[in-house]
Amino acid sequence: MSPAAQATRHAAQIRHGLARRACVYLALGVIALSLLLLPSAERSARASDRVLLAVVVAKGSPLQDVSLAELKRIFTNEGDSDSSGQRFVPFNHPPHTTDRVGFDQVVLGMSADDVSQFWIERKIRGLPGPPRSVDSLSLLLRLIARLPGGIGYARPAQLTPDVRAVRVNGKLPSDAGYALSFSE
Amino acid sequence: MVTRAFGLGLAVSLCALTARAAPAGDASAPATASTPTPAPPAADPPAGSEAAPSAAPSTPAPNTPAPAPSTTAPGTTAPNIPTPAAAPGPTVAAASSEEAQAASSDSFSSEETTEAEQQHKLDLYGFADMTYTRLLLPSSNPWQRTYFPTKSFAVGNFNLYLSSNLGDSWRALGEIRFLYLPNGATTVDPKTGSVTRTDTTVLDYAGFEEPIHWGAIRIERVWVEHEFSSLFTLQAGAFLTPYGIWNVDHGTPAIIGIRAPFAVADELFPAHQTGLHLYGNTFLDPFELGYHLTLSNGRGPVEYADFNDDKAVGGRLYLKTDAFGSLTIGGSFYRGGYYDRSAKYVLTSSSGGQTGVDQQYTTLSKYQELSLGADLKWQYKRWLVQGEAIMNEVHYSSDGRPRALVVSPPLGYEPDYRRWGAYGLFGYRTKFLQTMPYFGMQYAYAPDNPQIPTTLGTQLGLNIHPTPAVVLKLEYTFTKFYSDGSTGLGRYPLRILATQVAWAF
Helices (DSSP H) in B52-165: which residue ranges? Predict the structure, then answer.
């Protein structure tokens, strides 16, 4: 092989080596970049995973707006009534379901264990026990629709024509900054 | 090779990105469903599930077709079959069985049974505890022989609650405590100092006449109440005196420490009363204002008798707010009389010469008392601060002053007295097993009672909740007395180490 050919081959090898290195660096760069980007991607995915819960009453209920503080009183059975004097009858989702856990966290400010302990201690004091929990969503909504003072919560898309959402702290679930929401 | 590695790296990265981003696209929560395309649910999802109709409007229009009612009975198999989308997440998987059980007792799955279950269901629950106490004192210390019980496992409370919603805003509650007592209870003869232990041993006829000890039942409370409105609920029966914090918390799983503070244990307010109890509350956001008023037989030797028809009155006013943590401030009072007497039958003769029988009373003790109390409880995030200060004063009537119990002569009569007590407790609930280290201090001052020296107690303890229904407690108490007292026991500080397991069921 002539020296010129050898030089050409050597140059080709160098180029090939550089290309290989460049590919390796590029791959590492992509991996590093993807790792860097993952958290923000995850964050944006989670942001859209926020669950909204509508506070639900019967269609004919006079209740239009309820504050989170009032909701806390209603769902801790501390006694509250609507403008007509009708005592609220709260209905809960079964414990440890996603919506119940989220509701308890946002409204009562308690974890599932805190809620259990809260009701145990209240019952030992001789106070009324927790609101009734209803196994089936459609039954829950029907009970709210039919029982005077019935109040509960559900995801907005789950509402039936017999019930309606009320404002929470002045906002409906479709409004920005709605308070009764949580991350799944 | 390099190309393959690069491709693999890129593929892995893209796969990871896709996998992590996937939930965003699949988010089932129709948070802002703007397209009002009513779609009745195909099946009834369990309440609280993520399975939602695809795109129902948040506030359905009146002409929106109603979801077709399920043909199967609600709560039966079909509607409750969890779909993959409805499968509970990690939080759900971590569910403790305690609450699941508690909840199932409070849940119903059929509309038809709602009324009946809500109104006439008997709710049975309760609590119990076992305590082991040891004095950290030399064996020669007199407390080792006068403090009871020590170095023993003692089941202290086994209380059963029976609660029922009677419908139309009526509710009933009973709480009974099962006791080993009177077996083992001791009485002291003040004249001789001899201690007599009660023995309830009997032979069990249901077996081979093996010896057993019978115990007793104590009615802690039993009442029925009617709620007229949130401002007025009237309770009739035997109830816990609504004062302060500790007396109402009442059950060992609900209270932080192992032993009640002196001011509560010495009943500066009577712990129980029988009569009427009116209470209510109103909300003036962010405040809750509440009251309790009681009319009862008052303190006395017999729960169901008021020997001199001198009714006791009491009350409590409290203000509560959740504006900065949960803060409750309250004040209580109680005013009543105590009357104890002995009786004997005597023969009487009328003016017509006819004889008959009557009862003649001799007053043993008669006094009027006034109790005042103030309390504060503040829960801020995981911090807890609570305290109570109580005063009780007693004035004997001239014919009702009993003999004083004295260790050595001269014998005298009980003086009028005033006594004070206070305690404060600070705790922080950590996330590890819901453990709360706490520190408490208490003070008791009874200057008119020569037997009881002024007392300062400090407590250091742990309150651990491995589950919401179980509490483990470990408590060290150091009590210092500021004088010997007439018994001389005040010469020796008291060091107690106690541990307790309490559980609700």
Answer: 77-80, 90-93, 97-105, 111-120, 143-146
Instruction: Dump pLDDT digits (tens) for B93-139.
Output: 333 443 334 334 454 445 555 555 555 789 999 999 999 999 999 98
Chain B residue whose CA is closest to A77: B230
> Mutation test of the interface with chain A: which of B49, B118, B162, B248, choosing the one with the most A Cβ atoms within 10 A?
B49
A14 CB neighbour count, 10 Å cutoff: 10
A175 in B contact zone (CB under 8 Å): no
B242 in Cβ contact with B292 (< 8 Å): yes
Give me the CATH number covering residue B421.
Answer: 2.40.160.10
The four Cα atoms B223, B227, B231, B232 give a dihedral, to 10 degrees, of -60
Q: Kindly state whether residue B479 falls inside one of the protein's structural domains.
A: yes
Rounded Cα–Cα distance for residues B494 and B478 (Å): 6
Residue owning tokens 């109580």: B390
Distance of alpha carbon B463 from alpha carbon B128, whole angstroms: 16
Domain total in chain B: 1
Confidence grade of residue A3 (pLDDT, cut at 50, 70, 90): low
Q: Which fold has domain A50-183?
A: D-Maltodextrin-Binding Protein; domain 2 (3.40.190)
User: Pick from A114, A137, A184: which is nearest to B46 by CB?
Assistant: A137
Neighbours of A5 (CB within 10 A): 9
Q: In the predicted model, is pLDDT for residue A165 greater than 70?
A: yes
pLDDT greater than 80 at residue B473:
yes
Distance CA B275, CA B298 (A): 9
| pLDDT, tens only, B342-378 | 999 999 888 778 889 999 999 999 999 999 999 999 9
Question: What's the pLDDT score for residue B135?
Answer: 94
Cross-chain Cβ contact A136/B75 below 8 Å? yes
The residue of chain B with its CA nearest to that of A46 is B24
Sign of CA dihedral B82, B86, B87, B93: negative
Q: What is the DSSP string of B316-344?
A: EEEEEE-TTSEEEEEEEEEEEEEEEEEEE
Query: For residue B380, is pLDDT > 80?
Result: yes
Residue B346 in domain: yes
Measured between beta carbons, which residues in chain B are less than 8 angstroms from residue A20? 2
Of all residues in chain A, the one with the smallest CA distance to B39 is A157
Q: What is the pLDDT of residues B282-323, one digit of tens each?
A: 988 889 999 999 999 999 999 999 988 899 999 999 999 988
**Residue B34: predicted pLDDT:** 35
Distance from CA of B493 to the nearest CA of A (A): 34
Would you say residue B448 lies in a domain? yes
Print the domain residue range for B401. Answer: 101-180+215-504
Averaged pLDDT, B243-268: 94
Quick check: is B167 in a domain? yes
Residues of A in contact with B41 (CB under 8 A): 138, 158
